[in-house]
Amino acid sequence: MVSSEFIFKFGLAREADTKILLLVIDGVGGLPHPDTRLTELEVASVPNLDEVAEEGICGLMDPIARGIAPGSGVAHLALFGYDSVKHPVGRGAVAALGIGLDPAPEDLTVRMNFATERDGVIVDRRAGRLPDELNDKLCEFLRKNLRLEGVSFTLKRVKDYRAVVVFKGEGLSDQLTDADPGRTGFPPPSVEAKSPEAERSARIANEFLCQVRELLKTSEARKIVGDPERANTVLMRGFAHPSYLPSFREAYKLRAGAIATYPDYLGVARMVGMDILDTGDTVADEVATLKRFWDQYDFFFLHIKKTDSAGEDGDFLKKVHLIEEVDAFLPQLLSLNPDVFVVTGDHSTPALFKAHSWHPVPIALRSRWCRRDAVSAFSESKCAKGSLGRFPATELMALILAHAERLARFGA
Amino acid sequence: MVSSEFIFKFGLAREADTKILLLVIDGVGGLPHPDTRLTELEVASVPNLDEVAEEGICGLMDPIARGIAPGSGVAHLALFGYDSVKHPVGRGAVAALGIGLDPAPEDLTVRMNFATERDGVIVDRRAGRLPDELNDKLCEFLRKNLRLEGVSFTLKRVKDYRAVVVFKGEGLSDQLTDADPGRTGFPPPSVEAKSPEAERSARIANEFLCQVRELLKTSEARKIVGDPERANTVLMRGFAHPSYLPSFREAYKLRAGAIATYPDYLGVARMVGMDILDTGDTVADEVATLKRFWDQYDFFFLHIKKTDSAGEDGDFLKKVHLIEEVDAFLPQLLSLNPDVFVVTGDHSTPALFKAHSWHPVPIALRSRWCRRDAVSAFSESKCAKGSLGRFPATELMALILAHAERLARFGA
Predict the structure, then answer these.
(1) What is the reported pLDDT for A84?
(2) Which residue among B71, B111, B357 places its CB closest to the CB of A411?
(3) pLDDT > 90: what percent of chain A?
(4) pLDDT-based confidence at B256, cuts 50/70/90?
(5) B71, B83, B389: residue with CB nearest A409
(6) Taking CA atoms, which of A240, B96, B334, B381 is between 20 and 30 Å from B227?
């Protein structure tokens, strides 16, 4: 049984007058560059992160299990202590919650990505990271022209090339396959029912998909985009009914606030009952938000997005610089004197790999109750030698709460 | 599945002509002192423990799971290979067995601690570590004056401020909350039923509790204690029916003997079918007992208590000296030539933390079949670099039995 399950099952969490800051640098783990044999973190100059590693305890964390590369949703749920097998959540539900929608349990949610096809195959799964304004305009155009029978729907931009659809109607099933080949060079697929009960839902989804793809190829849509082919199709992933998990308040007795610039992370945070703290687009905005709300919460989840995007884009040096930018903000974070400060990633996104990967992520935890180890730098290779060893992310919350003196003793 | 479950499920244990000595230094793990940055173990001069570490294999063990601070009962059961979720045991049952009572499976056992209250709140949960003589006298006084209807009861001193109550009657339920706030500054609570079936049991327990608390405030009780408020109330923890686990004899094919100076550890040992080997109060007494019984058993559990008490009292230097005292006895233990010698703790009790904590405990295992690692000293930081890595205590028994050539091969 993982340690967070002990907390849930035996009600070990208790209130205390301590503050916790969890800094998640998305996709922070990397792979060594062939020229230098150093990872992004090892190339970056991060004196402040190194000091945290030196004063704290370090280790390597598997987001889910060895070899498993996770999506952002399950990776964050694991960080928050929720086993993603026991508590399955869908991408669509995360996206809908993340932009402030409140889908009902019977609604069907799904994430929709604008993509570009040429000669019948996908050539860009992100439509050149479509900007928000174009996404908004395309969503509006689609909403106006789509005609569906038997269900109503909400279609809204999430961010960049991402949107979300919430279908409202009777007896909708989420037992549907993704309409997404997951890589370029393949045709945009349709949706299939995984069970006979889902066949009607599959028909509805395919009718929606069909109309959207046709509408995006019209001259009106081409005029909106200003390009003959960019964003001329969509992909759909993660059909799901929304789930609401045991909340941080109930399970951990924590008043928790989430600070993130990207809606999906806020969606996961809302799922576990965190409050969303209003912030801007930059790390500086996020830090300002943290300071503004510092007195009002016990636990802060502070999410840095751009490191992951740089990794996905294969931009090694940009990722290095973004890590250095985060490091420069650390003194401001630490000056708030959190009783427990944790820095880690939700998963690795090595610039060389250009995607989320399975490689474990470095973690450092600083608190007065740490039994310091010999690690003196925050990197994959140094943290591998830390006293925390290698462990699954679902163990993290128990470690955090223990160091925050927020766990009762277990058992006789 | 942890490795001890393989032994249980597939009957892997087999007899052999080998001897095993498990030395448990209670609460041995510590935290670095701010002045020296060294833990109790690192300050202590322990040449003999260091030699065991050098000749053996080392690691760090989590008593239950990362972040979870255990009670002594579950921590020892984990050392003995029993998963405390699958095999829950109550504090009351451990205490009753530990002082030689043999409660029937339907009896209701509970631990009772003498405590001190002032102005309606608990100010000392241990009544200044009440001495045995006063505890005996108070128990006798209470037994003489308590009047309960519908049940009979046994009330006996365990040790220091601790006593145990065994209720005998029809249909008693252990679904009762603790009457213990777990910390000072709160009023002594009453017992609550966790389910409707337990309501009668809750009334009986509360009637008992009420009478005890009133009796302890009488002038007669005050005269016994010789103090106007010390031990003027009680707390109750761990209502439980006794559980008897798969025994060492059945599960591991071991004739096992337990040597401990403190009743609770003997209670856990009896639960797993160890024989209790009569001994005195000192480590020297325990070592003499070990020698006396060496030929009669395959497995010895030798428990050192005082290190834990020093940790709970926050006495760093005392804990250091007690560890050194144990070290001085090691040559006598090793001269018995155990085929497998293990030294570890059941959990950490850092003097700085003054309580059981979640920090992992160092472990060293010496046997002719060890694949020696590079660790050459017995301490938290050195063992963190050992080849055993970091692992849960429930894996220990399989390691021990394997090195004692007492496990059959698993599987085809």
Answers:
(1) 85
(2) B71
(3) 90
(4) very high
(5) B71
(6) B96
Question: Does 3.30.70 match the CATH number of domain A97-240?
Answer: yes
Question: What pLDDT is stored for residue B55 in this prediction?
Answer: 97
Around B121, how many Cα atoms within 13 Å sit in the side-chain half-sphere? 6
Per-residue pLDDT tens over the stretch B146-205:
999 889 999 999 999 999 999 998 899 999 999 999 889 999 999 999 999 999 999 999
Do residue B67 and residue A3 have CB atoms under 8 angstroms apart? yes
Closest chain B residue to A399, measured at CA: B67
CA–CA min distance B66, chain A (Å) = 6
The CATH number of domain A3-88+247-403 is 1.20.1260.10:
no
State the pLDDT at residue A85: 86
Check CB contact of A383 with chain B, cutoff 8 Å.
Answer: no
Residue ranges of chain A that CATH labels 3.30.70: 97-240
Indicate the class that CATH gives domain B3-89+244-403. Answer: alpha beta
> Nearest residue of A to residue B88 by CA position?
A411
**In chain B, which segments carry CATH 3.40.720.10?**
3-89+244-403
pLDDT for the residue numbered A86: 85
Segments of chain A assigned to CATH 3.40.720.10: 3-88+247-403
A316 phi, psi to nearest 5 deg: -55, -50
Out of A372, A397, A410, closest to residue B69 by CB: A410
Q: Which residues of A touch B84 (CB under 8 A)?
A: 410-411
